[in-house]
Amino acid sequence: MADRHDYVALEWVKGEIAETLKHARQALDAFVARPHDPSAMEVCLDFIHQVHGSLQMIEFYGAALFAEEIEQLALALQQGHVVQETEAIQLLHQAMSQLPVYLERVHSARRDLPLVVLPLLNDLRSARGESLLSETSLFSPQ
C-alpha cells in the first residue's frame, strides 16, 4: 500500500501544511483571547479544513484522519459541544504541532501509519465525547 503514495506530492505540501497549521494555532490563540468573537474560530477551522483537504487530495489517509479529528474537535469547540474547553484547546495545540512531525515521519519512513498517533487521535475523540478508535479500525478501509 505504501507504494501507491505520492511522496513527491507530500514533499510539496508538507511545508505549506506546517505553515497553515501555524496560522490555525494563531487563530486558536485569538479565539482564546476573545472567546465571544466567533471570527477567530472560523479562521482556525478554515485553516484546518484546508489541511484536511490537502491530505485527502494527495491520498495520505492516515494523515487525513489525523487532520479530520483535529477539525472535528475544533468544530465541537466552536459549537460549544466540549465539556473541558481548556483541555480541548491544549489538545488542539498539541495535535496541530504534532501533525507536521507526523508528516515528516511519513515522508522519511515511506509509511502513512496513524497507529503511532493513536493515543492522540483518541484524546481528540474523547474530548468531544466520541468513542475511541481501536488499532484494527486504523487498518480497515473506510
Automatic annotation (TrEMBL):
Name recorded for this polypeptide: HPt domain-containing protein
Compartments, as annotated in UniProt: Cytoplasm, Cytosol
Matches recorded under InterPro entries: HPT_dom_sf, Sig_transdc_His_kin_Hpt_dom
Superkingdom classification of source: Eukaryota
Entry keywords, A to Z: Cytokinin signaling pathway
Cited Pfam families: Hpt
HPt domain location: 10-99
Gene Ontology biological process terms, A to Z: cytokinin-activated signaling pathway; phosphorelay signal transduction system
GO CC term, one of those recorded: cytosol
